[in-house]
Specification:
The complex is a heterodimer of chains A (361) and B (310). Chain A has 361 residues and is an all-alpha fold. Chain A has one domain (38-326): ABC transporter involved in vitamin B12 uptake, BtuC (Orthogonal Bundle), CATH 1.10.3470. Chain A is 70% helix and 3% strand. Chain A is built from 15 helices and two strands. A two-stranded antiparallel sheet of chain A has the order 1-2. In chain B, helix 1 (8-34) runs parallel beside helix 6 (145-163) and helix 1 (8-34) runs antiparallel to helix 11. Chain B has 310 residues and is mainly α. The longest helix of chain B is centred in the N-terminal third of the chain and has 27 residues, at 8-34. The chains are: A mainly alpha (361), B mainly alpha (310). Chains A and B meet through helix 6, helix 7, helix 12 and helix 14 of A and helix 4, helix 10 and helix 12 of B.
C-alpha cells in the first residue's frame, strides 16, 4: 500500500524541485497531445521552448517579445501572489487589467494633442487607480457583507469586457478613425506613449515596473511587518488573529495591491505593445498570471522566472502555429495542463510517501 | 422603442430555456458542495460538456447520445479534479481554477472542426392538447425533454438529500469528514461520487447551451455561466429549491435584457449585457450579508482537505 504522511513543515528541497518536475511532465503530456494532433512532438516542443530564443531565423524577432509578454504576466502575478499567500483569492485580474487600460488611455486621450511631459505620469496613476478601484468592489463587499471575493472578482471580468466593448465602440472611439471601432493609436501620440526604452530588447516601462514589483514584493514579504502578517494569515489564520492581524485590512491591501498592479499592466500594454483600446484588447494575461503565480511558488523570484517561461510558451506557441500549424488552443490547453501537473506534484513538498502495509486506519 | 412587443407568456417560457444550463450545473455543484468539496471548475466542465455533447451529436446524428457524451466528458474532467484534491490533497480553489483554464483550452482544441456546423435538431415534446391551453400551455407543456429532466433532477436531489440514507451520509461527510470517517464511512469515495455527479450535471448544462439554447459551437460560449452557477448555489444557501429559484431569476434577467435589446431601449447594448452579471453580484451581496442565511447554511467542511491521519 502507498500512503501519505504529512511533513511537519513543507520540504524546501521539493518546493524548489516541483515546478521543474511539473514543467517536464507537461512537456511529456504536451508532446503526447501534439502527437495526437498529428504533429511531430519533438519538433513541436523544440519550436515552443528552443527556437524563439536560439533559432537564427526567428530569435531576432522573438527575443524582445519575451520581455514584452513577460512584463504584464509578472506584474499581475506578483500582485495576485500576495493575496494567494493570505488565502485571499483575486481571480478577476483580467477585469482589473482592462479597467486600468481604459482609465489610463482615457486620461491620455483627454489631453490629446497636448505635448506636455506630465501626461504619461498622470496616465500611470490613472491606470493604477482604475485597477485599484475595480478590485475594491470585491474587497469592500467582502469586508462589509462577507461576500465571496472569488465569485465577485471573476464576474466583474465579464462586466469589464462589456465596458471595454462600449468604450471602443463609442466613448473612446477615434473620431478620425472612419467609424471603425477602437481608440486613437497611443503609440503615435508621443506624450502618452510607452515606447521601447532600449531598441531591440523589448524593454518598456511596464517591464521596468514588473522588475520593481518583484523587488518590492520581496522586501515586503521578507522585511516588513505587513508581509509577515500576510504569510502568517496564510499559514495559520487562527494564530494570525492572536497576533493582532486585522483580517479586513489585509483583504483591502491584498486585493487593492493586486488590482493596482493589474491596472498598471493594462495601462502599459495599451500605451505600448497594443497601442489602442479595442474590443479584443485583452488576451487573457490576467488568467495566465494565475498560473504564473502558482508556478513561481508565490515567491517573487520564482514568479520572475515563471513569467519568463510562460511568456516563452506564448511566443513559442505563436511560432508553432505559424511553422507547424499547431492550433492556438493547443497552447492554451498546454498552459492549463502545466497548472494541473504543478498542483499534482505539489503533494511531494507537503507529504512524504510511505510504502508498506497500512494498519487499520 | 416598443415594449408592447414583449409578450409575458413567451418571456416566461423562454426564461425557463435560458435558465436550464445554469440550473443543471448548479444542482450538480450543490451536491458537490454538500459533500464538503468546493469545485470552482464548473465553467471548465460546462464548456467541455458543451463541445463533447456537440461533437457526439453531430457525429452520430443523435442529440440524446450527445447529452450522454457531454455528461461523460464533464464527469471525466471532474474526476481529474477529484483525483488531485482527494488523493493528492491539492488546494481545492487552485485546482478548480486549473480545471477551468484547462477546460477552456481543451474545448477550444476539440471544437476546431465544429465551428459553424449545425447540430441535429431537437423538438419539443408533444403533449398534444395540453400545449394548446392558453398561457399555461406554452409555459409548461411546450419544452424539450431536458427542461423537464432538469426539473426532475432538482426534485430528485431534494428527495435524495432529505430522505435517503445515502443523502444523509453525503451531508455528514460535508459537515464533518472526521466524524464521518470515525463512523466508518469512506469519505473519499463519497466525495469522488459527488464530484463525478457534479461534473456530469455541468456537462449536461454545457451541452444544453451548444445543442439547444444557441445551438452552435463557439469558443468560450459558456461566457461565465459556470461562475454564475457557483454564485447561485450560494444564493440558494445550499437548498435545491433555492437553486431553482435562483436559476429562473437569472434566466429571467437574461431574457428580459435580450428582449429590451431587441425592443431598442435607449440603453447601449453593452450595458444591458452586463446586467445579468451585476444582478448576480447584487444577489450574492444580499444573501451573504447579515440578513441572509447563506453564511449560516454552508457545509461546515466546505473546501477543507481530508487526510486520514493514523
Amino acid at each position: 500500500m502507498i500512503r501519505l504522511e504529512k511533513r511537519p513543515a513543507p520540504s524546501r528541497m521539493w518546493t524548489a524541485v516541483t515546478p521543474v518536475l511539473a514543467v517536464i511532465a507537461t512537456m511529456i503530456a504536451g508532446g503526447i497531445l501534439f502527437a495526437l494532433l498529428g504533429k511531430d512532438p519533438f519538433e513541436a516542443i523544440r519550436t515552443i521552448f528552443w527556437d524563439p530564443l536560439f533559432n537564427d531565423q526567428f530569435a531576432a524577432f522573438s527575443r524582445p517579445q519575451l520581455l514584452v509578454k513577460a512584463g504584464p504576466l509578472i506584474l499581475i502575478a506578483i500582485g495576485l501572489s500576495l493575496g494567494y499567500r493570505a488565502g485571499i483569492w483575486n481571480i478577476g485580474a483580467e477585469g482589473q487589467y482592462i479597467i486600468g487600460a481604459i482609465s489610463g488611455a482615457a486620461v491620455g486621450l483627454a489631453f490629446y494633442p497636448s505635448p506636455a511631459w506630465y501626461i504619461f505620469p498622470l496616465m500611470v496613476i490613472a491606470g493604477a487607480a482604475g485597477g485599484f478601484a475595480w478590485a475594491m468592489v470585491p474587497a469592500i463587499l467582502k469586508t462589509k457583507f462577507n461576500t465571496n471575493e472569488i465569485l465577485v472578482s471573476l464576474l466583474l471580468v465579464y462586466v469589464a469586457e462589456q465596458l471595454l466593448a462600449s468604450m471602443s465602440l463609442s466613448t473612446l472611439r477615434n473620431p478620425e478613425g472612419g467609424g471603425f471601432p477602437g481608440s486613437r493609436n497611443l503609440q503615435q501620440y508621443e506624450a502618452a506613449s510607452n515606447p521601447e526604452l532600449i531598441a531591440g530588447t523589448g524593454m518598456h516601462w511596464g517591464v521596468v515596473a514588473a522588475f520593481l514589483a518583484v523587488i518590492g514584493a520581496y522586501v515586503l514579504l521578507n522585511r516588513h511587518m505587513l508581509g509577515f502578517q500576510i504569510r502568517l494569515t496564510g499559514q495559520s489564520p487562527r494564530a494570525a488573529r492572536f497576533a493582532g492581524v486585522r483580517p479586513r485590512l489585509l483583504v483591502i491591501f491584498c486585493l487593492g495591491a493586486s488590482g493596482a498592479l493589474a491596472g498598471l499592466a493594462g495601462m502599459f500594454e495599451v500605451t505600448g505593445p497594443a497601442g489602442q483600446i479595442s474590443i479584443d484588447f485583452n488576451v487573457g494575461y490576467g488568467f495566465t498570471a494565475i498560473i504564473v503565480a502558482f508556478l513561481g511558488r508565490l515567491h517573487p523570484v520564482g514568479i520572475l522566472l515563471a513569467g519568463l517561461l510562460m511568456a516563452l510558451t506564448y511566443i513559442g506557441g505563436e511560432l508553432a502555429q505559424f511553422m507547424l500549424g499547431l492550433p492556438a488552443a493547443a497552447i492554451q490547453a498546454f498552459q492549463g495542463m502545466l497548472l494541473f501537473f504543478l498542483l499534482a506534484v505539489d503533494m511531494l513538498s507537503n507529504y512524504r510517501i510511505r510504502f508498506g502495509k497500512t494498519e487499520a486506519a | 422603442m416598443d415594449l408592447s412587443a414583449i409578450n409575458p407568456v413567451i418571456l416566461i417560457a423562454s426564461l425557463m430555456v435560458a435558465a436550464t444550463p445554469i440550473l443543471l450545473a448548479a444542482i450538480g455543484e450543490l451536491v458537490v458542495e454538500k459533500s464538503g468539496v468546493l469545485n470552482l471548475g464548473v465553467e471548465g466542465m460546462m464548456i467541455t460538456g458543451a463541445i463533447c455533447g456537440f461533437a457526439v451529436a453531430v457525429e452520430t446524428g443523435n442529440p440524446w447520445l450527445g447529452f450522454l457524451g457531454a455528461a461523460l466528458g464533464g464527469a471525466v474532467l471532474s474526476l481529474l479534479f477529484g483525483f488531485l484534491t482527494q488523493y493528492l490533497l491539492s488546494n481545492q480553489v487552485a485546482t478548480g481554477l486549473a480545471l477551468t483554464l484547462f477546460g477552456l483550452g481543451l474545448s477550444a482544441l476539440l471544437g476546431q472542426g465544429y465551428v459553424g456546423v449545425t447540430p441535429p435538431e431537437i423538438d419539443a415534446i408533444g403533449f398534444g392538447p395540453l400545449a394548446d391551453i392558453p398561457v399555461i400551455g406554452p409555459i409548461l407543456f411546450e419544452h424539450d425533454l431536458m427542461v423537464y429532466v432538469s426539473l426532475a433532477l432538482i426534485a430528485g436531489v431534494w428527495a435524495f438529500l432529505k430522505y435517503s440514507r445515502a443523502g444523509l451520509i453525503l451531508r455528514a461527510v460535508g459537515e464533518s469528514h472526521d466524524a464521518a470517517h470515525a463512523l466508518g464511512y469512506k469519505v473519499v469515495y463519497v466525495r469522488m461520487a459527488a464530484i463525478a455527479f457534479g461534473g456530469a450535471c455541468a456537462g449536461l448544462g454545457g451541452a444544453y447551451l451548444s445543442l439547444i439554447r444557441v445551438p452552435q459551437w463557439t469558443e468560450g460560449m459558456t461566457a461565465g455561466a459556470g461562475w454564475i452557477a457557483l454564485a447561485i448555489v450560494v444564493f440558494a444557501s445550499w437548498r435545491p429549491v433555492g437553486v431553482l429559484l435562483g436559476a429562473y431569476l437569472f434566466g429571467g434577467v437574461t431574457v428580459l435584457q435580450l428582449n429590451l435589446q431587441a425592443a431598442g431601449v435607449a440603453v447601449p447594448v453593452e450595458y444591458l449585457s452586463m446586467s445579468p452579471y451585476l444582478i448576480t453580484i447584487l444577489v450574492l451581496v444580499i444573501m451573504s450579508s447579515g440578513g441572509g442565511r447563506a453564511s449560516l447554511n454552508a457545509p461546515a467542511a466546505l473546501g477543507k482537505s481530508f487526510h486520514a491521519s493514523n
